[in-house]
Amino acid sequence: VCSSDLHTLLSEHWQSYVESRQQKRDPKRGYLRPEIRNTFESFLQCGVLAHGVARFLCNSCGKQRLVPLSCRKRGICSRCRQKNNAIWSEWVQSEVLPQVAYRQWVLSLPKCIRVFFRFDPTLKAKLSSIVFRVVTDYIRIRFARPDLIPLMITCDQSFGTLLDYSPHLHNLVADGGFTPDGEFVNLGEIPRRHQKELEELMRRRILTWLVRIGKISSTWAKNMRSWKHAGFS
User: Fold this and answer.
1) How far apart are CA 222 and CA 215, in angstroms?
2) Which residues contact 82 (CB under 8 A, 6 or more apart)?
3) Which of 73, 96, 114, 172 has fewest C-beta within 10 Å?
4) Low-confidence residues in the chain, pLDDT < 70
């Protein structure tokens, strides 16, 4: 990692970049969040012997090997991110998921309510359950089968392409539902009209939930429901 072009670039310019961001607020990216700074600085130490090693000794031949510690960050470090993604993906594919068709559902949130998810990470679990409930209802109504059971794995992500705070969910959803006896009923194509209806349903349920737990007022929610482009996608 320490010999990569990205590592070399950051080693030479990271401190000056941090100083420039501290002196002047970036109107587009906002301030430099502590977790972003920690991720970059951990990356600069990843794989560098001076920042920690594990020593392995072979009892048979007596040979030793020093293995540098990794940062275990998923945001920027290609070695740690790719390794963890590969291990997790292989486990999910071989041990968890049945061999059926899958579809990715991504839910993004409007900027005006993202702050609640930043300071209360427990909200993402409930957000995921709302998505699951909407998907479940849709599949059951589509087939007129209230006994169908969907399958969904959710991975939450907290940043966008500019490393700004942008909470959203990546949901891997079986493209259909399972009957109680294990038969899989394939969903097939989702009409564009249904996609817009699902988006609107998620928007209403999320806003209703935020009002119920006291994060926003009913007036705020009513105002957001009237927006043509409400920021939910």
Assistant:
1) 14
2) none
3) 96
4) 1-3, 27-30, 74-75, 81-82, 161-163
Which residue from 39, 29, 209 is spatially nearest to 122, judged by alpha carbons?
A: 209
Both tokens of residue 64? 């030793």
Q: Sheet containing 152-159: give its strands across.
A: 102-108, 165-174, 152-159
In this structure, the number of other CB atoms found within 10 A of the CB of residue 134 comes to 19
The two three-digit tokens of residue 216, written as one number: 């926003």
- Output DSSP code: residue 214: T
Cα torsion 200, 203, 207, 209: sign: positive
DSSP for 12-29, please give it. Answer: HHHHHHHHHHHHS-BTTT
CA dihedral for 128, 134, 140, 146, sign (positive or negative): positive
Question: Residue written as tokens 């409400």?
Answer: 230
Q: What is the pLDDT of residues 21-30, one digit of tens each?
A: 877 777 666 6
- pLDDT in the model for residue 3: 62
Q: What is the pLDDT of residues 117-167, one digit of tens each?
A: 888 878 988 999 999 999 999 999 999 999 999 999 988 887 776 667 788
